[in-house]
From TrEMBL:
Ranges for region Disordered: 32-57
The keyword Signal belongs to this UniProt entry's keyword annotation: yes
A molecular-function term among this protein's GO annotations: hydrolase activity
Lineage: superkingdom: Bacteria
Protein name: SGNH/GDSL hydrolase family protein
InterPro entries documented for this protein: GDSL, PLB1, SGNH_hydro_sf
Leader sequence residues: 1-19
Comp. bias intervals (Polar residues): 34-45
The species this protein was found in: Streptomyces shaanxiensis
Amino acid sequence: MRKRRHVARAVLATVTAGAVLGVAGCDAVGGNSPAPSGTEAQSARPSPKPTPAWDRSPASIAAVGDSITTGFDACTVLSDCPEVSWATGSSAQVDSLAVRLLGKTKAAQRSWNYAVTGARMADVAGQMARAVAREPELVTVMAGANDACRDTADAMTSVADFRTQFEDAMSTLRDALPKSQVYVASVPNLMRLWEQGRTNPLSKQVWKLGICPSMLSDPDSLTTLANQRRESVQERVEAYNKVLEEVCAKDRRCRFDDGAVYEFRFGTQQLSQWDWFHPSVNGQARLAEIAYRTVTN
């Protein structure tokens, strides 16, 4: 998040179906039969290549995104804590996606975290450019919260720009690594952050430092204007998630979490004790679980 700055599924059955169709085509023609012509020739043409099978056991992982993926404020105040990152962390308390997929030893050697605290979607293409140098078999993407968490609701990244920026990031990956897989996490539910922290005097004091003001400023205010402001931020987050889903769906080697992160009903136990905004160690572990389910199912 931006606290520091203000401060499919691949279808295996299609492979089998393609093989069956191929055998059926040979049997239909026969060794001594005349070559098909006309409509028969068209039906005898090879079927399109099947969708590539999703590899549930990639051998290397790179992560891009924002402060959620850097573990910001999970271990100490105002500090990144990459060892508890849901994507690539080494902490046994989190059991990160990399550790779950690669094992602890290989995860230390074959996973890389290029996320940057404060990053918005516009920054992800640059992170992706650094990640592709490692030639990872799986890239994780979690970004968008900072695009909604601005000084004002009017300053949020437009949906059109968000789409273009995410497409640019995907193109950066695809131009270099057409076969790498991508896991895309949805943007978290920012309205729920407000709901969880608005009755806590300490969290409200911390939020005054400038944490996601578009959603969290004046947390006690229930005026029409305040509620409309929060609703506009929430609607923008939902629009971002729709973009992530649509762009990912166009890529045969991309999996969106189907809104699992957004829909996760986190409580205060999953929030940082220092800012009641970023995930705690427990929250990072829950994100790792969601990612692992999406990648391996």
